[in-house]
Write a structure and sequence with these properties.
alpha/beta, binds NADP nicotinamide-adenine-dinucleotide phosphate, 11 helices, eight-stranded parallel barrel, NADP_OxRdtase_dom, 16 strands, globular
Length: about 325
């Protein structure tokens, strides 16, 4: 497993991280097994959110409860892993999104809720999950100060933010925003399309996000690496993605890995700080995906995959 370094944080952070969004309704032994497999595959970074999981007994945030229990069952020392959570999204009991909120009071409450459910004293990273258009950046700054000085959060970042939103917050917040977590993968390539299609009829709308993160040396955390659409399903072995699966299979054979590993290597081929958040809870898929960290695709292979995913070059 290759690792990345973040300024002010240190090195040794695994390039592949396990997201626990799908842990909320899983039986506890399967959660324990997913954690154990991830650790054995070299994964030492875990991504949570207060909104992940809604179990009939445990309620909203059940993913964090299950993961906290798994940490104790597997016997993981807190300092052995990097633990990240996110807050700022509200949903009702039917999982319909109702609002975003980045008020001082809510951000502090969100972190305290995550710490309680996870049964830990601190988070390594806390991210604003999606930015509230009604945000007052001074309130975010006040919340981050309280969370950092109380020792509850060590580092901060954002998710699903464009460059202007990052700058809006960073102008008010003392702590460096180190991470932007965004959907990206062979099934969701807007950030690449944007740079390739400048001034064409296909011009996209991500406002140079990839280049911005690279210039500012932020870490791009990519979510849903194997999905197309937003949670529409995985493109791996899906007939609608025939040409893509043919190229994935060819390269998997060449590098003696699985299609998951090649899809992951395609993301990690970006010459910037990238961390991929995988969400599978199946041990074999965790191990197979993590192996993608060791594969370096050639430039032509990277383009072959992009084209096979249904894109064209202008
Ligand atoms: N910031 C945000 O707004 C945001 C949004 C969404 C997610 N996230 C983060 O990103 C993490 C990953 O998201 P994700 O779970 O959507 O990512 P993902 O890893 O792309 O998708 C996982 C899903 O793909 C399936 N899958 C993977 N490999 C497969 C294969 N070879 N064959 C068949 N099915 C396969 C998994 O099923 P199996 O379990 O059967 O393998 C699972 O259902 C989340 O846990 C969360 O931490 C963040």
């Amino acid at each position: 497993m290759k690792t990345i370094t973040m300024p002010g944080v240190g090195g040794g952070i695994s390039q592949v991280a396990l997201g626990i969004m799908r842990m909320g309704n899983l039986a506890q032994p399967k959660c324990d097994q997913a954690l154990q497999t991830a650790l054995a595959s070299g994964i030492n970074f875990f991504d949570a959110a207060d909104i992940y999981g809604r179990d009939p007994e445990l309620g909203r945030g059940s993913s964090e409860v299950h993961f906290g229990q798994a940490l104790r069952h597997v016997g993981v020392e807190r300092e052995q892993i990097w633990l990240q959570s996110k807050g700022g999204i509200f949903a009702d009991e039917f999982d319909h999104l109702t609002r975003y909120e980045a008020s001082q009071q809510h951000l502090i409450a969100a972190v305290e809720g995550s710490l309680r459910r996870l049964h830990v004293d601190y988070l390594d990273f806390f991210l604003i999950h999606r930015l509230d258009p009604l945000v007052e950046p001074t309130q975010v700054a006040a919340a981050f100060d309280v969370l950092q000085t109380s020792g509850k959060v060590r580092h901060f970042g954002v998710s699903n933010c464009n460059p202007r939103q990052i700058e809006l917050l960073q102008a008010a917040v003392d702590q460096p925003l180190l991470v932007d977590q965004l959907q990206f993968g062979l099934g969701h390539t807007q950030m690449i399309d944007d740079g390739l299609n400048v001034n064409t009829e296909l011009a996209a709308t991500t406002d140079g996000l990839l280049e911005y993160l690279r210039t500012k040396r932020l870490t791009l955390q990519t979510w849903s690496p194997f999905q197309y659409g937003t949670f529409a399903g995985t493109f791996i072995d899906t007939p609608a993605f025939g040409p893509l699966n043919e190229v994935l299979a060819r390269l998997a054979a060449k590098y003696q890995v699985t299609k998951n590993a090649i899809a992951l290597a395609w993301i990690l081929r970006l010459p910037m700080k990238v961390q991929v958040l995988i969400g599978t809870m199946t041990p074999a898929h965790i191990t197979a995906s993590a192996a993608g960290s060791e594969v370096t695709l050639t430039r032509q292979e990277w383009y072959d995959l992009y084209l096979a995913a249904g894109h064209r070059l202008p």
